Amino acid sequence: MPDVMSALPDYPVKSSFAGIKKVLSNSGLAAIEAPTGSGKTTLLPLMLLKAGLSQKKILLTQPRRLAAKTVAQRMAQLDCTEVGETVGYRVKGESKLGSNTKIIAATEGTALAMMQHDPFMSDYDWVIIDEFHERHIETDLLLTFVRDLRKSLGPKEAPGIILMTATWQGQPVEALPEFSFHRIEGRLFPVKNICCPPGITENLPGRLNWGVKEAAEQTDGRILVFLPGRREIEAARKQFSTGRARFHISILHGGMELSEQQNVLNYQGSQRQLILATAVAETSLTVEGVTAVVDSGLERLPVFQPRLGITRLDTRRVSRATADQRAGRAGRLGPGLCLKLWTEAENHRLTDRWDPEILSGDLAAARLQTALWGSSEPAWITPPPPGLWLQAEELLKRLNALDGEGRITAEGKAIAALPLPPRLAHMVYTAGRRTQAALAAAILTEGHRFKLSGSFSRRMEAARSGAEFAGIRKQASEIERRIMGASNRDRAVLSLGELLSLAYPDRIGRKTASGLFELVTGAPLRCENCNFEWAVFPEISGTGNRIFAETGEELDLGKIRNIHPSLFSTLRRVSYNPDSFKFSVQRSELIGKLELKKLPSEKADKSERLKTVKDMVEKKGIDSLPLNKAGRLLLTRLRTAENAGIIGLPSGKPEVLESEIEDWLGPWLDNDLTASAVAEALYARLDWQQQKRLEKLFPQGIKLSEGLEKKIDYENADVPLIRGRMQEFYGQTAPFSIAEGLIPVAVELLSPAMRPLQTTSNLGEFWTGSYLQIRAEMRGRYPKHYWPENPGSAEPSLATGKKRPE
């Protein structure tokens, strides 16, 4: 180990550096697994620099602003320099760098912006992605872009990649075949884990009280409490500040200034410190002196709802990997204690690891970044779901950030450069009053909890003054500075509502008689103090059909039409009435899915008629068409032919008729669709030769002696059937058939009252068989009718009262 490293602390990563150096020298690609407290974050970049493995710069990414600034400060301390000299940082809206800065700690989002600005990364030897296991969308994008860079430039010209994580368990290591994996054994002391006893109340304050009490009694160092968010932190601060103060209570979250965070970490008071923290204290922040961790087992993360197009903060149970990492914070100095505020039974139900954010998050910014990067096939380690990816692309097209082919536009490049989500970036870029737009964007991104409901303009007015809104005003100034000069085109000056609608055209809504608003997407929304007819709702929450908004901003329908002409459309509903055989057209003007007014009806054109008929047949089948007796007879004859294996005739099967309906029925849809028109269309499927063949093989009727003809029933029997009074068939002994004798035709013999007496396919056998019993019965019931003893040789007749030979 070179002498220049002797001053660095003896963390485990230092003793493992020889192996890491060998891996990096060979391939420039390393995946390092090291537990909390191993020194990987603060020591490895410095060792790369001091060992001569980096002649240029090193980019170290962190998932949070506070972590990036803290890591930079810690590395500067180890290097005996000031932040901004050898080590600096760059985060959203803030940086501390110098001309000689070699190591830059940056948030993942800022690192992406740096790569887009310098796509060849020509000033960098290494890109180190820390806390890779968190797998934010930006994490995956960073790795994808750097891998793409190495593929296009070659490993010698592109920076090397180092992935660092507390654990590779559950990660897709098979998608990183080019990386060498290196594990660093930690120096953690054992941590005793105790789950909450079943008898303790299930509410968080009660369990928290148990956990802090146990931690205070069993340990004597700092107590670190993990809570899901600032609301719970504030409630816990009040909970443990009442009565006789036993603790010095500190809070730690990502929204703090670096100086505030340092005051917490450097506390030297006489009272025991109780640190109430969010997930920011899980990883990169080193909280020294912690001997006990109290873990709520909860975390608050953004969850994207594709149907509503909103991202809401969802509180959920942590994974087992996260719980283990939190517990590890108690084992840095010696044996520690972790009080888990959930039961053993709940502990068994913890999931090992949550899915990466790219599988369920809002992908609009990621799609914009890939378009700006210019990669047509990103080398994802976990590909995004195609449906979410397409939804993101369609949104960006509506925002004019992508063209019809999915390529980035000039406006897309401008909004990608802004530190804002695409919706708000488009709003600021398009606005005439950019100061107003920048302030609105800052309010919507900074996450300040306002106590003002009703009109969004009340929040705008409040944010323009007051110390608690200083961060919002600072962010607004940075946004306005970044957008100045982006385009010289003239822009109309818009009202606040019109401005917000640029970002959220899908959240425009109209108040209904019930008091709810109905959005242009068709979803209902409740806003208690929004007394507007039309409004836009920039901040909405909820799930399913329960959507809420605390604020909205009034809109004028006429102005909406000017700003969002694509939202307006005319809906034509074409329907068919099979009773009247007529088509009708109902027309409405819509904004999104909301009906504004009904319009005068018009006549349906031929294409609309065809589509209506096709939709009807697809839903209800071919029998939904009006069919008269002739049409039904034709279809049954064709089906009989097909079932008999006769070729050369059109099919009569329903599925064939449905699939070919455009060809055979389309030409007959110039006017209303009657049953006779359908029958004519069906006959038109047969040419003259086919019609002759059909009539020859499958005639409509069969002629009997003495000129009588009986219609063949092809539809209501298992075999073709003719029927008539028994007397009509006297003298007939040969069987009837069609299709040149291939298909027999049955005979249904009827009484004088037209009631069935017998069905037979062989009259000769019937006359000498069961006929005799029927004759005896019928002679008594119908004595005036002719009932011969030998009907096979008798003459057919329907006459009554005439003397006949017995």
From TrEMBL:
**Per its UniProt record, what SUPFAM superfamilies does this chain match?**
P-loop containing nucleoside triphosphate hydrolases
Q: Which domain of life is it from?
A: Bacteria
The record, for Pfam families, names: DEAD (PF00270), Helicase_C (PF00271), HrpB_C (PF08482), WHD_HA2 (PF04408)
Q: Where is this region: Disordered?
A: 786-806
* Membrane listed as a keyword: no
Determine if Metal-binding is one of this entry's keywords. Answer: no
Which NCBIfam families does this UniProt record tie to the protein?
DEAH_box_HrpB (TIGR01970)
**What name appears for this protein in its UniProt entry?**
ATP-dependent helicase HrpB
Name the species this protein comes from: Candidatus Thalassospirochaeta sargassi
